[in-house]
Specification:
The protein is α/β, with parallel strands linked by helices and 219 residues long. The protein has two domains: 131 residues, 3-Layer(aba) Sandwich (Rossmann fold); 82 residues, 3-Layer(aba) Sandwich (Rossmann fold), CATH 3.40.50. Helices cover 50% and strands 16% of the residues. The chain contains nine helices and eight strands. The strands form two sheets. The chain has a five-stranded parallel sheet with strand order 2-6-1-7-8. Strands 3-4-5 form a three-stranded antiparallel sheet, with no helix packed on it. α3 packs parallel to α5 and α7 crosses α8. It binds cytidine-5'-diphosphate (2 copies). One cytidine-5'-diphosphate binds next to α1, α7 and α9. It comes from Deefgea chitinilytica.
Length: 219
């Protein structure tokens, strides 16, 4: 698979991957893959089907059979819009549990690669540059301090009119990051060939502009 038109953006939770990746995709006219959504959808579908997040064989089956469609802002699971439901912290935690299971990662691999179109792709997640698109032309590792990330998530939830508790969010991000960094398969880590973008003191526009600059240099 030719990955000359792939930009892989990895990083920990609430580092800004989704926001930044979508804007970069829009500016370049590329497709966009939110790979975390696929793990979240798997966790939600398992919950709906009464499958335990620890049952590797059964969860991998759920992942293989996911009936999902991304339609603009909507994310349809068996025709029901679950775009908001999958953002719940409980589902985020479930996503990181099922994401540690090798059979589940294998089940979602090809599905992720199918997002690559002739126009190009911006993909965000934890292993976009290391596993899913190892030959991506540009790889970026987005980071920000744990405190800044927790505050970003807090503001995001409050902005959506949801209840939020900064201490709980901080603890949840910490345990999810630890699990994502320590797992045996596709752990969260900056690949040697990825550009580091530290955004603790950087707004979205500046981060987008930096990635677009790197992209111009790569072409
Ligand atoms: O996808 P990920 O969990 O990495 O993060 P996100 O959902 O894109 O970003 C979390 C929140 O941080 C969003 O509300 C972004 O607008 C905000 N953000 C920010 O304030 N400054 C940045 N440099 C990046 C993101
Ligand atoms: O938005 P946020 O960064 O909090 O999470 P996400 O990108 O939606 O991913 C949810 C969970 O899925 C993460 O905590 C990871 O455990 C897992 N994930 C993964 O293992 N590999 C990916 N490429 C994307 C997500």
């Amino acid at each position: 698979m030719n990955q000359d038109l792939v930009i892989a953006i990895d990083g920990p939770s609430a580092s800004g991957k989704g926001t930044v990746a979508q804007l970069v995709a829009e500016r370049l006219g590329f497709a966009y893959l939110d790979s975390g959504a696929l793990y979240r959808l798997t966790a939600l579908a398992a919950l709906q089907q009464g499958v335990a997040w620890t049952d590797e064989v059964a969860v991998a089956q759920v992942a293989t059979e996911l009936d999902v469609a991304f339609v603009g802002e909507r994310i349809l699971l068996a025709s029901a819009d679950v775009a908001l439901a999958i953002r719940a912290e409980e589902i985020g935690s479930g996503a990181s549990q099922v994401a540690a299971l090798p059979m589940v990662r294998a089940a979602l691999l090809q599905r992720q690669r199918e997002f690559l179109t002739a126009q190009g792709l911006v993909a965000d997640g934890r292993d976009m540059g290391s596993v899913v698109f190892p030959s991506a032309k540009l790889k970026v590792f987005l980071s920000a301090s744990a405190q800044v990330r927790a505050e970003r998530r807090y503001k995001q939830l409050i902005g959506r009119g949801e209840e939020a508790d900064l201490a709980l969010i901080t603890a949840d991000l910490q345990s999810r990051d630890d699990r994502d960094r320590q797992r045996a398969v596709a752990p969260l880590a900056q690949s040697a060939d990825a550009f580091l973008l530290e955004t603790s003191n950087m707004n979205v526009e500046t981060a987008v502009a930096q990635i677009l600059d790197w992209w111009q240099l790569k072409r």
